Amino acid sequence: MGENKRTVIIVGAGVIGAAIALELQRRGRQVTLVDKAGPGEGTSFGNMASIALDFAAGSGPSTWSKIPGWLLDPEGPVWLRPSYALRMLPWFLRFVAAGRPSRLREIEDAGMSLSRHALSDFRAMLAAAGAPDLMTEEGCLSIYETEAEFAGDRAHLELMQRYGMEYKVLAGAEIRDHEPALSPSIAKAVLLPDNKSIRDPYKLVLTLMEAAKALGATFVSGAVRTVERQSDGDVAVLFENGTRLQANDVVLAAGVRTRFIASALGEPIPLETERGYHTQIMKPGIAMRYSIIWPRRAFMVTPTAGGIRVGGNVEMAGLDAPPDYRRPRILVRHAQRALPGLQVEDAKDWMGHRPALPDTIPIISPSSRVPGVWYATGHGHLGLTFSATTARLMADMMTGIAPAVDMTPFRINRY
């Protein structure tokens, strides 16, 4: 790992881990990235390619009132498998507690403290990787089929106003002027010009990894069982096959599976999987300028990876249940309502595990129990959005630089 540099092992080679690897390698650390799969082959492979700056807390009174209807609707935006309901109860109670009005404002402030840096940090990361063209300059359209739907999203618009986010309300023919593929049934849209898209999320992770390797980083394939503090002050990563690696620092960025290592270290975290689905359509029959999001139906459509990707929603069913591929087909039907010309040819369904914490904001923190261990997990739907900012903040903390963001809300022992 190099004799004269401080060494770091990063567990997890998704977009968070790869971004941290590049940033730390650029700052003179000797980095080894570890994953049981190849870089970018987990949840980061199938994200919706969206830099979504309009952070919104998951919980709150408006959400609580909708949950019963969502759970009873077989085509609703949230699905809970009955066999997993009891397992979900502790997480759900924390989720409800996070929506108290006093706590809600704190969460919004914390989330937006990351969002306000996300776009500039992302551009700097792509420049460092030599790939600025991986991000488009087009924005996102939030769409509404009725005036009532638009009115129901008023709190979201008020939040954007409060934090100084730019947006523009569109109506009638103006909507089709921006995105001709949209149905005339769409009554209102909100243009979010700074919510950019990534041309290929998988290629992004590979690009970050190659840039880190060019500076001397390495990749090791293997399933991690746990980590242990050593008597000499280093931290050892123990693999399921009995091998081990040792470094001065270890960053745990393994998505929802980080919870198993955290529990073994004596600091359990309420990290749950929000299973998400997408359908990647390589012959969609339409062209799109913008990504679109339909808040009422909780899905996105993004031109990415050489085609059009339809995805979103939440399924709570744990890590081990088999995928239910009826779910992405429901999303495609919703998408065809908004985009009547959308065809589904040369298409493939996918399912991944978003790492979700009940208060919506991630853990970006040193361990509270084991010196030399660091956490970067729980980004939920915003792993791609917050990847570059997480990398910068993590590298700041690990190299003794005061972060530009108050890191208190993101500490591991906040629960």
Short description:
The protein is of the alpha/beta class and 415 residues long. It has 11 helices and 18 strands.
Notes on the protein architecture:
There is one protein chain. The protein has 415 residues and is an alpha/beta fold. It has helices at 15-26, 61-72, 85-97, 101-128, 147-152, 154-162, 173-178, 201-214, 258-264, 326-338, 383-398, and strands at residues 7-11, 30-35, 78-80, 140-144, 168-171, 188-192, 218-221, 224-229, 235-239, 244-247, 249-252, 272-283, 291-294, 299-304, 307-316, 345-356, 363-366, 373-377. The strands form 3 sheets. Strands 3, 4, 5, 6, 12, 13, 14, 15 and 16 form a 9-stranded mixed β-sheet that branches. A hairpin with a 6-residue loop joins strand 17 and strand 18 (373-377). Helix 1 (15-26) packs parallel to helix 8 and helix 4 crosses helix 11.
Total strand segments: 18
Reading the helices and strands in chain order gives EHEHEHHEHHEHEHEEEEEHEEEEHEEEH
The average pLDDT score comes to 96
* H/I helix tally: 11
- Rg value: 21 Å
Shape: globular
Structural class: alpha/beta
Q: Detail the poorly predicted runs.
A: none
